[in-house]
């Protein structure tokens, strides 16, 4: 529920921005036209979905990734600076060994986010990334939307799976941590938005 709540808060911030822009454009159009040409402004509130794009800071992206694949139910911690880092412990050669995985994120054609693993620090051991990822894969709970591809040395944050859980579509737009250019795309069913608004009203 924590993950769903975080994503809904983020989605509603974006949704509010889209609505404000539509209202501002409508009002500007209405009041700048000659009075004889004015017509009632009709906003597309009955559209099937509401689509938008949000530009994120690294801090907000960190929160989104943490909500998607982090939390108390996974055996690692996630933090993001100029790369994505996963830290935790693995059982390797019958030993519990601390590790730190460093990866570069990029958006796939399907809107999921790939993490190209460029380094894994594994205490005093020197093992191939492929071998460590194989061990890491065995530690993941089944319901975490994170796929592991040891041969390709990459992870994939499955935003498509996450979208099925939260009830609206979340896709990567652009992720370039080096230039701090991060954007995400959202598509929210209007019926679901109305349902959430009614729930919020009922809770107040």
Automatic annotation (TrEMBL):
Organism superkingdom: Bacteria
TM region positions: 12-31
Alphabetical UniProt keywords: Membrane, Transmembrane, Transmembrane helix
Keyword Transmembrane: yes
Pfam families linked to this entry: DUF2140
Protein name in the entry: Uncharacterized protein YpmS
Organism: Aerococcus suis
